[in-house]
Amino acid sequence: MNTVDLPINRKQFIPVARLLDRMAQDLELEVMGGYQGIGRPVMTADVNRPGLALCGYLEYFANDRVQILGNTEIHYMERLSPAVLEERLTSMFSFEVPAFLLSRNLTPQHVFLDICNRRGIPVMRSSFSTDEVISRIILFLAEEFSPETVVHGTAIDCYGVGCLIVGAPGIGKSETALELVERGHRLVVDDVVALKRSRDEDLFAQTNPIIEHHMEIRGVGIIDVKAVFGVGRVRNTKRISMVMELEDWDSKRNYDRTGLMDEFVDIMGIKVPYLRIPVRPGRNIAIIIEVAALNFRLKELGLNPAQRLNDRILEITSRQGN
Description:
The protein is α/β, with parallel strands linked by helices. The protein folds into two domains: 14-144, Udp-n-acetylmuramoylalanyl-d-glutamate--2,6- Diaminopimelate Ligase, Chain: A, domain 1; 148-309, Rossmann fold (3-Layer(aba) Sandwich), CATH 3.40.50.300. The chain contains ten helices and 17 strands. It has helices spanning 16-27, 51-54, 71-79, 82-92, 110-119, 130-144, 173-182, 225-229, 285-300, 305-321; strands spanning 2-3, 14-15, 30-33, 41-42, 47-48, 66-69, 100-102, 123-125, 148-158, 161-167, 186-197, 203-206, 214-217, 221-224, 237-248, 264-267, 270-279. The strands form four sheets. The chain has a five-stranded mixed barrel. A five-stranded mixed β-sheet has the order 3-8-7-6-5. Strands 2-4 form a two-stranded antiparallel sheet.
């Protein structure tokens, strides 16, 4: 198995402002206080419900996480006298807290909002249930903190199979992808492919927000695939199932002619099926990639044509030998 040595980017933190910007519509968020601290860093994809901290137990207080306040926490604070609540909150806020997020459109005590405003700790509120808020926030943060990298290549959706086409500059990656698009397949991104590893250990290619679905075709120039072929021939993200490396035909190299030995490439700790495809005049690389994608789908269904043929030959040879 080959390993692709790529620089991997892992975010150290994201500002609360990004969470608010990306999740405001999804969770119907509103800012109730502490807006001046909107740039505070969120350091981890986990969240915390600070029930024990409100009770005064701070030894294992996960203060670096987004703090979720639901019915339990809000009703508990309502039962405390203002003096006791202020004392507990002051002890809590001796730790750096990125933000508070309330569910069910709950309204906290005035003393809580006053302290958050003074200390610049954002307080946001959602109309969704506590479980729904926690679920969506964790999914968002997990995606934000997922390892990512960038490769030079082309990502395309071919018969529902995400294919990453790589190879030396000028080998024909963009031209091959363009022919695949013309044949009805969908372009994800050309030239600069952002790859992200999901929490489910899948590898996703994402459209570059700057170049989007533009391609550089030597002799023609820059083309907009979405404008030329229509919105149905592009997509913004796709799980990568295969890596195909195009290389100049080398008569001294032994290329796989049976498909019995599966090769993989390791990208950010994920094993991805790998094919090396030799390029020379007269070979239609687009058709080869189409067939490779269809063959991959058969293997996913448990049907391996090369293995079945090999088993048949061995069976016939065994019968003839007897």
